[in-house]
Amino acid sequence: MTKPWNLFKFSIISFLGALLMSGFFTFPSYGHQADLSVAKAIVRKTETQVILALPTSLVAFADNNRDDRLSPDEVRINHAKLQTFLGDRFRFVNGKGHPGSLTVAHSNRAILSPWLQSAAVTHSTLRLNYTWPEPIESLKIRYALFSSDLPTAHCLATFFHNGQVQNYLFSASSQELSLNLFDASWFSSHNLAVAIVLAFMWGGLHALSPGHGKAIVGAYLVGSHATARDAFFLGLITTITHTMGVFVLGVVALFASHYILLDQLYPWLSLLSGIVVTMVGLNLFLRRILPDNDYQSSHSHIDSTHHHHEHHHHHEHHHHHSHSHFSFSNGEKTFTWRSLLALGISGGLMPCPAALVLLLSTISLRQTGLGLILVLVFSLGLAGTLTCLGLLFVSAKHLIKRIPARIRFPQFLSAGSALLVLLIGLGIMTQALPQIQFFLT
């Protein structure tokens, strides 16, 4: 069973890599600098400030000396014309349908990327201020700075609002964008509190599912003179190692969001997220429905005898067995802090699929920062449950020794939760594919 499954996973990864590379190479080219405009907009309560670097040919009527750049004097002299021209072609309208009152000024701010600095000789930079008499809750932006001379012109726009960053590529076929400024439901205080509570509860319940080294940790805590400090330390280390990889992925995605054209990258990230979540769900589902001896099993052995001996096992089966042997002498603890650390790491060495699903789902919703917060809260719930279990092992050793070494969830419940993860992955993939098709056409 293991070899076909590994081959299947390798095939999926290879397909994903080829698809991802082909997607990058088929993205629209930004090499034609004369076609490219760049805008950075900061949205505030009653105003929006835009720094716009655009080809001077689009506003050639204001280039009095024909040097392909607008000087501060030229902008001042042609202020009325520029205001009318840009107000009609770069419109910001609030939720009530009222366009912002526009003022235009020259700007010395450099917003072109380093690899586009050569375009500075053909581009001009302007500062556009749109104001409204009352707070704005939503914006509808229409960009129509196109001409027959530049049929492939496009504008890479970045919008900063409510602590969020959103990129959008305006083109002749995609001229409008809507921003819902104060309806960020995930970040509203009420819904954020609910999400945090649910993430904490999910982390706590997830710790009760099979795995997380509970058998190994329990064997140590029950078989030795462990203390509450040992239980706390083991729970903390197991949680950190179990979720560390997920945190690294989230931090990388968060930093990358400030330097990459996310409106084109997010669909691919969503597809990648969907594939990973689907594979995780399929893997969990197969583990739940197949007997242990057909897929994978784990054993924990505890020797509490007075003598010391070594065990050497070698199995040549098609499935994998992992053995953990712990020896205790006369009921005394033989573990050092280094051994305790190694035990905690081994208990949480496998990446946490539930935290990964949580993070990838928020990435697909373009809420990477929220995903990191929820993963942190999830980890606290996980750590809390593991620590409580450890304290229970320490304080009730004589009772725990009578409990079977492995307690299973009902078969249908475990399989159902894995199937739910699988369906979430398929849903993320289904949502991403139309967006990818849009960018490839």
Main features:
441 residues, three-stranded antiparallel sheet, six-stranded mixed sheet, single chain, 12 helices, alpha+beta
Protein topology:
Layout: H1 2-26, E1 36-43, E2 47-55, H2 72-77, H3 79-89, E3 90-94, E4 101-106, E5 123-131, E6 138-143, E7 154-161, E8 164-171, E9 176-180, H4 189-206, H5 214-223, H6 228-256, H7 262-289, E10 296-303, E11 320-327, H8 337-347, H9 353-364, H10 368-395, H11 397-400, H12 411-440
Parallel strand pairs: 1-7, 10-11
Antiparallel strand pairs: 1-2, 2-5, 3-6, 4-5, 6-9, 7-8
Helix pairs in contact: 1-7, 4-10, 5-10, 6-8, 6-9, 6-10, 7-9, 7-12, 9-10
Structural class: alpha+beta
The tally of strands reads: 11
Shape: elongated
End-to-end distance, in Å? 41 Å
SSE order? HEEHHEEEEEEEHHHHEEHHHHH
SS field, number of helical segments: 12
- Number of folding domains? 2
Mean pLDDT: 69
Q: Which range best describes the helical content: under 10%, 10-25%, 25-40%, 40-55%, 55-70% or over 70%?
A: 40-55%
| Side-by-side strand order of the widest sheet | 4-5-2-1-7-8
| Beta-strand content | 15-25%
Task: Report Rg.
Answer: 29 Å
Kindly describe this structure.
The protein has 441 residues and is of the alpha+beta class. The chain folds into 2 domains: 31-183, no CATH class; 186-297 and 327-440, no CATH class. 48% of the residues lie in helices and 18% in strands. It has 12 helices and 11 strands. It has helices spanning 2-26, 72-77, 79-89, 189-206, 214-223, 228-256, 262-289, 337-347, 353-364, 368-395, 397-400, 411-440, and strands at 36-43, 47-55, 90-94, 101-106, 123-131, 138-143, 154-161, 164-171, 176-180, 296-303, 320-327. The strands form 3 sheets. Strands 4-5-2-1-7-8 form a 6-stranded mixed sheet. The chain has a 3-stranded antiparallel sheet with strand order 3-6-9. A two-stranded parallel sheet has the order 10-11. Strand 7 (154-161) and strand 8 form a beta hairpin. Helix 5 packs parallel to helix 10 (368-395). The protein is elongated, with a radius of gyration of 29 Å.
